[in-house]
Design brief:
Length: 279
C-alpha cells in the first residue's frame, strides 16, 4: 500500500509546488481509496478519512494558489503572456491582432488588398481621356489654351450642296456666309476657336454648332438612301438658340430645313439658311 508522505518530508519548496508532485500525490490518494474499498474498511474510517482527505486537499490547493499568485503564475502569468504577444504584434507584422482571427479561409480585406495590388500590376487599356482632351485643345499665341466643348460625331460629312447663311439685321442684309466648305461650323464669341463669330454679349463663347451628318431616309417608295443634311446643336449656352422663334433643346441635334431662321441668344440678327439651288 503506498505511503502518503507529509509535505515536511520534501526539502525543496519549489518541488512541492511542481505539477509532478501534485500528480503523484493525487494518484497515491486514488490508489489508497481503491485499496480501502477492496479491503472493506470500517464505516467510521470511511466517514472520517474522506473528510480529512478533502480538508488536506483544500488546504494544499489554497496553499498552491497563494504561492502561484505570489510568484506570478496562473491568470496573471497568462495575462502577461497575452500582453507580450499583443506588443509583438503591434510592430511591423502581417499577422492579425488576435489568434482567434486566424482561420483556414483568407480574410476578405487581405483578399481585396491583394486583388488591388494585382490590378495595379496588370496593364490598363481603358481610355484615359487625355488624348481626347489634347485633340480638343486649342493653344493661343500668348501660351494659353482653350478646350473645345464640341467634338464631331462619326457620321460627320462635308456637304455636296452649297449651303449659305444670309445675315439680316432688321430688314437689311449685313452679311453672307458660305458654310459648305467643312463638315462643322462652331458659332460663338471666342474668335480664337469659333468659325462664325457673334458679337452680342448675350451669346456664349462657344454657343452652338452647325453640323452636317450623313443619315439614312426613306422615299415615298420605301427605298432607303443616304443623304448629308444640316443640323444645329446648342452647346448648353446661357441664353439658348432659337430656330423659327422656338428655343431648341440643348445638347441635342436639331435638323435644319431650307429657309429656317436662326437666332443666337438675345441678338436681333437673323441667320437665314439657304442653298445655291434655291438661290
Amino acid at each position: 500500500m503506498p505511503r502518503d508522505y507529509p509535505r515536511s518530508d520534501y526539502r525543496d519548496r519549489d518541488e512541492e509546488r511542481s505539477p509532478r508532485y501534485r500528480r503523484d500525490r493525487y494518484s497515491r490518494e486514488n490508489d489508497r481509496d481503491d485499496n480501502r474499498r477492496r479491503e472493506g474498511s470500517h464505516r467510521d474510517e470511511d466517514d472520517a478519512k474522506p473528510r480529512r482527505r478533502d480538508d488536506d486537499r483544500d488546504r494544499y490547493r489554497d496553499k498552491d494558489q497563494r504561492d502561484d499568485r505570489d510568484r506570478g503564475y496562473g491568470r496573471r502569468r497568462d495575462d502577461d503572456r497575452e500582453r507580450d504577444r499583443d506588443s509583438r504584434r503591434a510592430g511591423p507584422s502581417r499577422r492579425s491582432a488576435s489568434p482567434r482571427a486566424r482561420s483556414s479561409r483568407p480574410d476578405s480585406r487581405s483578399r481585396s488588398r491583394s486583388a488591388a495590388v494585382e490590378d495595379k500590376a496588370k496593364p490598363n487599356f481603358a481610355p484615359s481621356g487625355l488624348l481626347a482632351a489634347e485633340t480638343k485643345t486649342v493653344k493661343r499665341a500668348d501660351g494659353t489654351s482653350t478646350v473645345l466643348k464640341y467634338h464631331e460625331p462619326p457620321e460627320a460629312r462635308k456637304p455636296s450642296v452649297g449651303w449659305r447663311l444670309y445675315v439680316f439685321k432688321g430688314k437689311e442684309q449685313v452679311d453672307l456666309l458660305h458654310i459648305h466648305r467643312q463638315s462643322a461650323y462652331l458659332i460663338g464669341r471666342d474668335r480664337t476657336v469659333v468659325d462664325i463669330a457673334v458679337e452680342h454679349p448675350s451669346c456664349s463663347k462657344q454657343h452652338a454648332v452647325i453640323q452636317y451628318r450623313q443619315v439614312q431616309e426613306k422615299n415615298e417608295f420605301g427605298d432607303v438612301k443616304t443623304a448629308v443634311k444640316p443640323f444645329i446643336i446648342d452647346l448648353e449656352s446661357t441664353n439658348g438658340t432659337i430656330v423659327n422663334d422656338e428655343t431648341i433643346p440643348t445638347s441635342r441635334y436639331y435638323e435644319l430645313m431650307l429657309g429656317d431662321v436662326i437666332k443666337f441668344g438675345e441678338s436681333t440678327r437673323e441667320y437665314v439658311l439657304m442653298n445655291e439651288e434655291a438661290a
